[in-house]
Design a protein that fits this description.
alpha/beta; Methyltransferase, Cobalt-precorrin-4 Transmethylase, Domain 2; 2 domains; five-stranded mixed beta sheet; 6 helices
Amino acid sequence: MKIRSLGKVYLVGAGPGAVDLITVRGAKLLEQADIVFHDALVDPAMLELCPQAIKESVGKRCGKLSSAQHFINKRLIDAAKKYHTIIRLKGGDPMMFGRADEEIQALKNHRIEVEVVPGITAALAGAAAIQQSLTLRGVSRSVAFITLAQGAENTSSSTDENSQPLASPNADTLVYYMGRKDTKKIAKQLISKYNSNHSRDTPIHILEAVSTKNERHWSSTLGELAEGKADGWFDRASPALIMIGKALTEIQQIPIQITKTSNLLESSSTKINDSLQDSLILTNCRRSA
């Protein structure tokens, strides 16, 4: 009796939100997929790239009921025993706060081949959106990507304002993922921290739903963030990114003009090929609060 060979699992970065910001390799793999396990923040339009595939939601949203990681691992392993091409579609980049290491190890423990396809992480898409580098000659020579999300399924975080988000993030520019509910705590700790690179006047920039039609921006200072000035601005249904550092000083304090976007990815018969690399890609419309 011939033993069925195991399928291959691809951990694919979906990018920051916009459908046309997935890589060409990622899009081509979706077209070949037998089954796709996707995150909650993946745009439904991106799943139109794989009409032939079975789609399974295994999304995780902070504070909401979500799939346990060990259950996701088991589903990937079981799928590899049944299908040839399995896609684990992750928002942003799989290797940035995406628990890729847990899934990779689980698959390797079962001798299942796995490949990682990188994606654009939200911090880089955010810098592109505000047209401001996270580094700046003579001002910022280091960048730290930080998350406060902890626990088995990221459903809780410390409410103690004296606890440290992480052990002394000393980079010139800080980018906090999944930090919306802790913005005041973050700001207060950075202001009070001994020998900190940051003060009450340090510029901050918050972006919601980066690269999507719902993208919004809020610019201010660390001091105003510590006072809770941003609390009423957030849309709790949208993912938020908090950027902090002197490199953001030059951001223009003017509304970002709303522009029409060309629909590069048609809803029903989307195809992506090598020509996409040379085509003109327009950003989705944005609005500034």
